[in-house]
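Colleagues,

For the teaching module next term, I've prepared a clean inverse folding example: a structure given as tokens, and then the sequence designed for it. I'd like students to try predicting residues themselves before seeing the answer, so please don't circulate the second half yet.
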């Protein structure tokens, strides 16, 4: 099983590129972790390249602005690849008549796309970036509308495959939780973000633009989410650094102290094979 890593710099010589998750690794939805930002900045100063790879439904420009407001210095990364960006290809390939589920702040996802926003009756495709009000709603409140979608065989495009994310000390439901309910009903879900291949291909292409051809064994993925970061990196054939103080911390952490025996059992139970693990990126 993997050993604990004290400092990302201890792996700098082994990798040329880092694919780093954002939510749960660089920030918790309310504030950035300066030591994580500095770890990536130091990796870049020593010649490495950093591609942030996030299931945010926002486009890369919006994520960059959000990171800046939270205190993530642009010196910490070279490129950003978002689920929102790769999802735009799915939207373009489907019906022009879109029923949108998500907060108004996510509407820039559609900028420049030839789509019509319609009501339920006229929809040909559903696009979900999240719950309308993720502070108060639960995914189960969407069951009745999902049943209507299923009766009409509407495809459901999920722009954020995360099930939950941290927001401060809370776990907030994401679009992936709604998509999971629809899939359980037998509905057709379309996803490009983590853990699916398109977002990793986009990240690898971004790294190639920065450095030329990149060997897969010189890329390190960093993340905290089992169904997204971990599964996606492993399926794509990447080495993984697991950050334990993320969405799964409650499974093996007591009073901010990681129980390593429980952590190893958790990783094994979930088929996770990270090369190393850290409590927080630093």
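(Answer key — instructors only)
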């Amino acid at each position: 099983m993997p050993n604990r890593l004290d400092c990302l710099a201890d792996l700098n010589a082994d990798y040329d590129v880092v694919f780093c998750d954002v939510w749960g690794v660089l920030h918790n939805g309310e504030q950035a972790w300066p030591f994580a930002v500095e770890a990536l900045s130091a990796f870049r100063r020593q010649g490495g390249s950093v591609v942030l790879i996030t299931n945010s439904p926002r486009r890369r420009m919006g994520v960059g602005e959000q990171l800046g407001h939270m205190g993530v210095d642009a010196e910490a990364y070279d490129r950003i690849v978002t689920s929102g960006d790769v999802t735009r290809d799915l939207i373009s390939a489907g019906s022009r008549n879109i029923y949108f589920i998500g907060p108004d702040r996510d509407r820039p996802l559609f900028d420049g796309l030839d789509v019509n926003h319609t009501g339920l009756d006229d929809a040909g495709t559903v696009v979900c970036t999240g719950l309308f009000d993720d502070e108060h709603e639960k995914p189960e409140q969407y069951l009745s509308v999902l049943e209507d979608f299923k009766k009409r065989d509407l495809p459901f495009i999920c722009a954020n495959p995360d099930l939950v994310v941290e927001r401060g000390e809370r776990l907030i439901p994401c679009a992936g939780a709604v998509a999971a309910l629809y899939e359980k009903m037998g509905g057709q879900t379309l996803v490009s973000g983590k853990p699916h291949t398109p977002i990793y291909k986009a990240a690898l292409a971004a790294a190639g633009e920065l450095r030329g051809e990149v060997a897969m064994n010189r890329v390190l993925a960093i993340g905290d989410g089992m169904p997204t970061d971990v599964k996606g990196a492993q399926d794509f054939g990447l080495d993984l650094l697991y950050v334990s103080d993320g969405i799964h911390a409650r499974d093996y952490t007591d009073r901010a102290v990681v129980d390593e025996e429980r952590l190893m059992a958790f990783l094994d139970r979930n088929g996770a094979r990270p090369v190393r693990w850290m409590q927080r990126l630093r």
